[in-house]
Amino acid sequence: MTTQFDKIIHHKNTHSQKWDNMAACGVEAEDGLAMWVADMDFEPPQSVTDVLRAEIDQNIFGYYGHTDTVRAAVCDWMASRHGWKVEPDWLSFSHGVVAGLGILIEAFSKPGDGIVIFTPVYHAFARKIAAKGRKVVESEMPLEDGRYHMDLEALQDQLDGSESMLIFCSPHNPCGRLWTEAEIKALGAFCARNDLLLVSDEIHMDLVFQGAKHIPTGVAAPEITDRLVTVSAASKGFNIAGAETSFIIAQDTRLQGEILKAQASFGGTPNRFGMRMMEAAFEGGADWSDAVCAYLAENFRIFRDGVNAIPGLSVMDMDSTYLAWVDFSGTGMARQEFTDRVAKDARIAVNQGPSFGRGGESYLRFNFATRRALVEEAVDRLAQAFGDLQ
Ligand SMILES: Cc1ncc(COP(=O)(O)O)c(C=O)c1O
User: Fold this and answer.
1) Which residue out of 39, 40, 98, 248 has the highest number of ligand 1 atoms within 8 Å of its CB and is therefore the one to mutate?
2) Is the pTM of this model over 0.90?
3) Is residue 136 classed exposed, middle or buried when 0-12, 13-18 and 19+ CB atoms within 10 A define those classes?
4) Domain containing residue 134
5) Among 29, 87, 302, 358, which residue has the fewest nearby CB atoms (within 10 Å)?
6) Digit-coded pLDDT (tens) for 217-229
């Protein structure tokens, strides 16, 4: 059965970071497959396209103001989809989640402070921390039963008292792990014990396979409201990352005040189009969201089964996101060799494991949010590129 997500869309020459910059991954071939940057190759929900058309017809492109309707849309979505009753005045907005992280680092830490991340994790965390002159404290996650775990005991021994903040990725990128209520609660208690501000990046909250559940940190650990800030967006879940619009949730009024102070130095007026798109996505995108999650789950099944059938390659199980974490250690090859085979022989642009920090050395990250025919094509190309191992 073909679906709206099987539509052939030509992304090349559209200023697409994912499709037009594959040379950055060493893929120069005309028929390169872009499986790196975290965009989906799908059209967004109709409600998003409609609102942008209406903005164009209105032909008014001045500063955006009056945030009541977008606040209501975010709060309704968080309550109906994630069981979290967020009040409109807990929200502020930023130009993307990474920019939001920058604001929070500025607000709640000082140069030289340690900021903890659980690696392997989204590469911009470490980059942003370092760019702000803070120290990256990597807590490498051990694997148990093929899944990552936070090792809070080891982390406790690692802390030297200079740490003021911890950035948590939930759901986790890479590997698509959802955290349980018990794990999040334990993390909250850890932050309280060590006087750390907990920043919960939940940008992938809406990309969850059927039967699984994302639990917001604010729901799992309400007892740490005075040290919790959540950052999220409609950008990943609805494929509108170019809008560079996101929101920050802080229930505690002291935290809200500090965020506003830090925001003042960045310029707080939101992007008109991004705000309209986010509101439309949350208001009219529920059915689309269900459909895309079902499609992604099946893409994952095909990708995992196909790749796991290639000797030496192993895909980590996941129940969220579209970013598969593939271990090449079983090939026995040096890193350069397996990355070359993927980029040059299979002609697939991927993200390099080491960019996600400690623990990523033998991995590559594959984005399978593309039409199914291309997922199958990627599996075929990998089988050929590593065919001599069969
Ligand atoms: C965990 C995480 N946070 C933030 C971002 C990027 O957010 P933005 O583009 O809104 O800055 C990504 C993108 O993949 C991500 O995976």
Assistant:
1) 98
2) yes
3) middle
4) 49-285
5) 87
6) 999 999 999 999 9
